[in-house]
TrEMBL record:
<protein>
    <submittedName>
        <fullName>Urea carboxylase</fullName>
    </submittedName>
</protein>
<dbReference type="InterPro" id="IPR017791">
    <property type="entry name" value="UAAP2"/>
</dbReference>
<dbReference type="Pfam" id="PF09347">
    <property type="entry name" value="DUF1989"/>
</dbReference>
<feature type="domain" description="DUF1989">
    <location>
        <begin position="16"/>
        <end position="183"/>
    </location>
</feature>
<dbReference type="InterPro" id="IPR018959">
    <property type="entry name" value="DUF1989"/>
</dbReference>
Amino acid sequence: MTSSSLSPANAAYRTTVLAGDYWAHTIRRGQTFRIVDLEGNQAADTLFLDAANPENRYSASDTIRHQGALYLTTGTQLMSTEGDILLTITADTCGRHDTLGGACSRESNTMRYAHEKEFMHACRDSFIRGAQECGCELGKRDITCNINFFMNVPVTPDGQLTFADGLSAPGKYVELRAERDVICIISNCPQLNNPCNAYNPTPIEVLIWNS
């Protein structure tokens, strides 16, 4: 666990993202970006794309290979599909963030839980809304690998993924330094069918500090 010395009172930008809502913003090189789990056990599904070339985007497989570990925490460099470092995690008071489980969708809700779950709002819907409104001309094809901040997805000894109760708590946060200009799109996960949000989605807070 690594705490930050940055004070929210000095942040250049600060907003709350409601449960199930989305947020899209460009984070400039050198800025520090924090996501706060305000009430605990809330998954913040997040996409990162190179602002200068959105086809150069976050890569889960390259990040895992680069750091030699499955879970993301302080010191992890988030790698792009073209081998660039997009951001570095500089503080983390939660200690568990998933990048294997992907984002929920209405289709996956139907396959995993029940046919009648198809109508339920899902992260992929929020990502599409964020992509449409970020002013970056992004679409469905730009929604690829994501990070599930605060989400606990243990990998079993036989290689299976499980959705487990979160390890986060009210006020836990993760902080990242942008190594280049990046577009960030967050879906504050609305999932109600597994314990990633403790079956009760809650708000998160986003803060940005200038370098």
